[in-house]
Amino acid sequence: MGWFLTELFTWWNGQTMGTRFYTWRKGERVGTDEFGNIYYRTPDKDRTAGGSPERRWVIYNGYSEASTIPTGWHGWMHHRTDTPPPSVDYKPREWQKPHIPNLTGTPYAYRPKGSIVGADHRPRVTGDYDAWTP
Question: Residues 123, 129, 131, 134: what is their CA dihedral angle, to the nearest 10 degrees?
Fold first, then answer.
């Protein structure tokens, strides 16, 4: 019963009932990434004759956090490439780095020197700055 209420009232926790129904009716599963996110697209028969682009979407494993989409899948989701990563033809570029999740709000977030939550203190002003006076 808990999953039913979660899908009915929350959009940030995986998928809603509307997304589940639409995926059931029109979705064609393309693949899964290393984080458990599942990727779908509309099959060719469901696209209009006017040439509307293929609709692509992801159902997140857990909270809906866009930074959990790896590089190859991001390119496919945004129609940069027509070849999804699990395909045999997919070859990552040499400049593509491994995925790093968004660390904002975690203890591992970047905190520059002088930050309020950082361990270091802000360096003293050296006199190279003069305050503006009207």
Answer: -170
Chain-centroid distance, C-alpha 103: 13
Burial class, 87, CB count within 10 angstroms (exposed 0-12 / middle 13-18 / buried 19+): middle
Bridge partners of 40, per DSSP, are 29, 57
* Cβ atoms of 7 and 14 closer than 8 Å: yes
Read off the pTM.
0.60
Distance CA 63, CA 22 (A): 19
Show the beta-strand stretches assigned E in the chain.
Answer: 28-32, 38-41, 56-59
Q: Outline where the chain has alpha helix (H).
A: 2-9, 17-26, 71-77
60-117, pLDDT tens digit by residue? 887 777 878 888 888 888 888 888 887 766 677 788 777 777 788 888 888 877 777 7
Gap between the Cα atoms of 119 and 131, Å rounded: 27
Instruction: Tell me how crowded residue 77 is: count the other CB atoms within 10 A of its CB.
Output: 17
